[in-house]
Specification:
five-stranded parallel sheet, Rossmann fold, alpha/beta, 10 helices
């Protein structure tokens, strides 16, 4: 009788855990995963970038390019996405971000490996155990993924119990409305975060090299893209760079450099190094018009 009672209690406990995990995962999907696990496989050209590519939105589709960018995507995430695309559709061309910060060691921690695991497959891992952990346990089990716990905590603090949001969204100053001092301070903080270390990440560099090799092996044209930056950010950035673009140049690949495109147009940006939606739409036109005119260099 004692064993049966124990097994019953354990079963009830496990069932409650499963139900709680299911409910929390719904929350995670709504506030963290969102559309990250959605991709249109009806294209042959794709943009792979971090948050610098997201302002381009669906405007790229006008030019038959699907925007597969993701907030905080690292080269490891982009590599997974690339392998997924090759397995599921015919890829002819990839545009990839090669900005100054993309080989930063900070990307070893600031990435989407818990989300991009959705696009991984057994062949991407050296061991079956690692595959099961990343693809299923860490992705679907809220209690296993430490980042999920942080997302839930932030939701409770900033969404559920932030009553100031209930009366409407709080306004934020646009980049052009900030004082020169504010712009300088924020830009300096961003640069200090990206360029804390003297040398680029070996992990990110190796991933970028694998991306290049994968594209060559599958006859995929790979084009590097440098996104526009604000004048203030560029001025402080100076020569700070981990030179991701040089890796492409060494491999005789094209680079499109637009980092100084909007030097005098702060209204195109939402912060020091990200375009806003309007800026993303206009930049998309300039980007693909330049390609049509064969101005890739």
């Amino acid at each position: 009788m004692m064993i049966k009672l124990f097994l019953k209690q354990v079963s009830i406990f496990l069932l409650l855990l499963v139900v709680l995990n299911f409910l929390l995962f719904i929350l995670i999907r709504a506030f963290y995963i969102r559309d990250y696990d959605q991709v249109d496989l009806g294209y042959s050209e794709y943009l792979l970038a971090d948050s610098h590519g997201t302002p381009l939105g669906d405007f790229t589709e006008i030019h038959d390019v699907h925007n597969f960018s993701g907030q905080s995507d690292s080269y490891l995430d982009m590599e997974r996405k690339l392998r997924f695309l090759i397995r599921h559709t015919k890829v002819k061309k990839i545009y990839i971000s090669v900005d100054d910060h993309t080989l930063s060691p900070t990307r070893e921690d600031q990435n989407n490996l818990d989300r991009s695991a959705y696009y991984s497959d057994r062949e991407d891992y050296s061991s079956y155990k690692e595959f099961i952990h990343d693809k299923y346990l860490n992705y679907y089990c809220v209690f296993v993924n430490d980042r999920y716990s942080l997302i839930i905590k932030n939701f409770l603090q900033n969404e559920l119990f932030d009553f100031s949001k209930w009366g409407g969204s709080r306004s934020k100053n646009s980049w052009e409305d900030m004082s020169a001092l504010q712009q300088k301070e924020i830009s300096t903080d961003r640069i200090n975060n990206y360029f804390e270390f003297a040398l680029p990440s070996v992990v990110m560099s190796s991933s970028l090299l694998r991306i290049i090799a994968i594209c060559k092996a599958n006859n995929i044209e790979l084009i590097g893209l440098r996104f526009p930056l604000t004048k203030t950010y560029l001025g402080i950035l100076d020569n700070e760079s981990y030179n991701a673009d040089s890796i492409l140049r060494i491999n005789d690949l094209h680079i499109i450099d637009f980092d100084s495109l909007y030097m005098e147009q702060d209204y195109m940006f939402r912060d020091m190094d990200h375009l806003d939606k309007e800026g993303g739409e206009k930049f998309t036109e300039i980007l693909f018009d330049s390609l049509e005119e064969k101005k890739v260099y």
